[in-house]
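Run: sequence + alanine -> complex structure.
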Amino acid sequence: MLKIPIKTQNITSLRQSDIQKIRQDFPILNTTVHGKPLVYFDNANTPQKPQVVIDSVNDIYTKYYSSVHRGVHCLSEKSTRLFEISRDKVQNFISAKHREEIIFVRGTTEAINLVAQSFARPQLKPDDEILMTTMEHHANIIPWQMVCGQTGAKLKVVPINDNGEIIFEEFIKLLNPRTKLLAVVHVSNSLGTINPIEKMIEAAHQQNIPVLIDGAQAVVHQKVDVRKSDCDFYAFSGHKLYGPSGIGVLYGKKALLEAMPPYQGGGNMISQVTFEKTIYNTLPYKFEAGTPHIAGVIGLGAAIDYIDNIGLDKISRYEKYLLDYATQSMQEFSDIRIIGSAQKKASILSFIFEHIHAHDVGTILDQEGIAIRTGHHCTMPLMARFNVPATARASFAFYNTIEEIDVFLQGLKKIKEVFHV
Ligand code: ALA
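>> structure
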């Protein structure tokens, strides 16, 4: 194996012993796949869950499950209290000013659809513009395409350079009085690029353009502070943050959320209903129609506690160490091209083998017990920009190790043997 002069883990704050302890928190990491120890590098898709999250969901159903906000009985009061404590945890986690600014939704996708329909649609006129970037996930493209179809507004796209970074001068040129919203991904799920969102928000706000940030990949890798960045909306998913699937968060500035009509009608989002008219509930309930994902919300709270306990600073530094090691080690393969080499990157490594399809790469690695994602990663326009149909993508979490990356590198060698390249 190539020996690379990489600084030791000591400077990363998470030591080998910490990682071994952390790994014991994730029961699935002890399993085997095709008789080989699981190496799980599909974390940008969805990471595994620590025992505390599994226990918290199990406890809900075994000890105090009941509906929230609707009962006077003991179980309902307990589940309501824990549900609302989770809202406080999310508020602190992203440094929101008010707890009512935290709306529980199904995930990032629903959060963006909510903003598209409740915030953008009522104000958009023909020839208004929604600005996004080339590296958006489909979840931050299609809701805007739909609202453009409904209103006659147009999509505008900020180009990126060959490293996978936004071309900032082009971004500035695209801001104009017709721009009614900037919708931009914080960390690209396909490239790992960390976008300069604070600078982008500042530039947009100078022209009174509100900004939505797709934070699905970002909240996992770095501290997000919605007050510091001054974004107007921030969306993320619980499952990417080591919590349950089917739960997510929309943060919105209180004044904006208050002025927006509800997204869906139903129970919980009302304060008074007659057949003639309805008076809507206050924030955040106005946007939380129906029985929510109770176990999801409480499980997300447990995940946030878990992450906070380790510390996002330490997580960030350790993941960068893994990324640097993998990136440098892959230089050994002259027939591998890394897609996305931004200066500021999260621990996401997309690559293509010349002459070998990404799906073949993924299938052979799977036989070695290594899980990566292959395909377009829900970013087809980005694949078109790089002129590739698909990439193979290894994405690292803080429970991964250098030894696992070595197993992965051996797997890449095996692919070359199989294909005689
Ligand atoms: N956005 C998810 C991924 O990147 C689905 O894999």
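>> summary
Residues 96 and 226 are 6 Å apart (CA to CA). The chain has 15 helices and 17 strands.
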